[in-house]
């Protein structure tokens, strides 16, 4: 058990501080009164400011959003920034980045950037889109049950998260641990539902940085 030494210096410092305050009452008054005076002044100034009316809800018509009155706050769109063509984020709706959202986003980007999808038949294109995007079949391992659908006929190349280097640690420990956190997850109990692909199906290993640079270039 560790013994704590008595802190006699604390008592000495408090006594010294009390003596200083006693010898300089004007300083003590300023230390106590000035902050109170500033708080009171700020409160008075705040009370003199005009109230700003914030309209309830939001507006979808951004052209009539802003009022000419300085006492009326704008009503922003729930989804769009201002103006609607601006990349500024929405004022109300906000999104939070997650690994699951990233995996779905990668699938959507891969399908949207597919080359020659119009060359596929209507049934193959529907099968490719349904299995790739909604069923999470994005694995580039042809032996995997969740491999890229053959109906895509090589028209869609899935985005992958690169892991370097390719070692026993990155495969057997890191990737396996992260896969346990982010497995395949169906979002509903229906037989055909939106399924988030597993992180293991969305990663690719490279032996070193040079191999990754060669693949990218």
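Q: What amino acid sequence fits the structure above?
A:
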């Amino acid at each position: 058990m560790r013994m704590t030494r008595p802190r006699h210096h604390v008592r000495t410092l408090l006594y010294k501080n009390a003596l200083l305050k006693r010898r300089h009452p004007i300083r003590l008054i300023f230390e106590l009164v000035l902050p109170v005076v500033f708080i009171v002044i700020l409160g008075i100034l705040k009370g003199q400011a005009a109230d700003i009316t914030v309209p309830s809800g939001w507006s979808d018509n951004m052209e009539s959003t802003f009022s000419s009155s300085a006492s009326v706050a704008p009503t922003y769109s729930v989804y769009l920034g201002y103006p609607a063509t601006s990349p500024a984020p929405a004022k109300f709706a906000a999104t939070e980045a997650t690994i699951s959202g990233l995996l779905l986003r990668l699938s959507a980007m891969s399908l949207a950037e597919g080359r020659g999808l119009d060359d596929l038949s209507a049934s193959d294109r529907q099968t490719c889109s349904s299995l790739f995007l909604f069923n999470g079949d994005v694995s580039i391992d042809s032996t995997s049950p969740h491999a890229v659908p053959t109906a895509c006929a090589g028209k869609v190349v899935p985005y992958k998260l690169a892991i370097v280097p390719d070692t026993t640690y990155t495969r057997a420990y890191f990737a396996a641990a992260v896969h346990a956190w982010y497995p395949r997850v169906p979002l509903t109990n229906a037989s055909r539902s939106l399924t988030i692909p597993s992180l293991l199906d969305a990663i690719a290993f490279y032996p070193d940085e040079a191999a990754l640079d060669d693949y990218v270039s």
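Q: And what stands out in the fold?
A: The mean pLDDT is 79.
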